[in-house]
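Lab notebook, bench 4. Still working through the backlog of constructs that have no structural model yet. Next entry is a single chain of 253 residues. Request: give me the structure tokens for it.
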Amino acid sequence: MKIISYNVNGIRAAISKGFIDWLQHANPDVICLQEIKANEDQIPVEDIKNSGYPFQYYFSATKKGYSGVAILCKTEPKNIVFGTGIEHMDFEGRNLRVDFDDLSVMSLYLPSGTNIERLDHKFMFMDDFHRYIDKLKNQIPNLVICGDYNICHEPIDIHDPIRNKTISGFLPEERSWLDMFMKSGFVDSFRHFNKDPHHYSWWSYRAGARANNKGWRIDYILVAKAIENRLKRATILPEAKHSDHCPVLAEIQ
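Model written out:
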């Protein structure tokens, strides 16, 4: 199964930049989207269906034009779960899961900490999400959590770790949480295959950051340890330029 995760920073904007043509070429079995910023009735679902994805699931934020996640599938999952049942997460449309026979795939959009209030919210989300996943793992051991985590894990995952050490997304407390979360039973699929620096998934629109590859790796496909031996490939796709993020990919046997 080829799985892609992509924060599209507005699905309608991404489509206007050629997202659907790119999707046909990339041809994943499942693609998890974050920050769709739209409701289903605002999305050209027929065009997406005609591109090979008849099974589309959207979980939008209550606030219009904000947040939201989606999963597009080539084959029909046996079960779809919208949200977590935790109000402050579901209000902002940040979690969606599809279950197949021997694998479950989740699209996650973890909040950013743009100010003190949002940073407090982010930490609350992180703690509640970890507890939610700890319970879920007992029911669904073969879990793949795709998404924008809004956290760089290690200094190797950010272009300037010294200057960014006090910025949300690379705070010690955030990094510690992500490290703990991974060690609770997940594998960072990209680092499973690639230990090299200078691989990023998000770049600021300012000061030519993308052209100069001054980025952050904040998008992950985390794979349950139980299926680590089924990982066949993982990579980042920086040539896709429909967003300030780029897609990340993992292939699982």
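Notes after review: The CA atoms of residues 225 and 233 lie 15 Å apart. The mean pLDDT is 97. Flag for follow-up if needed.
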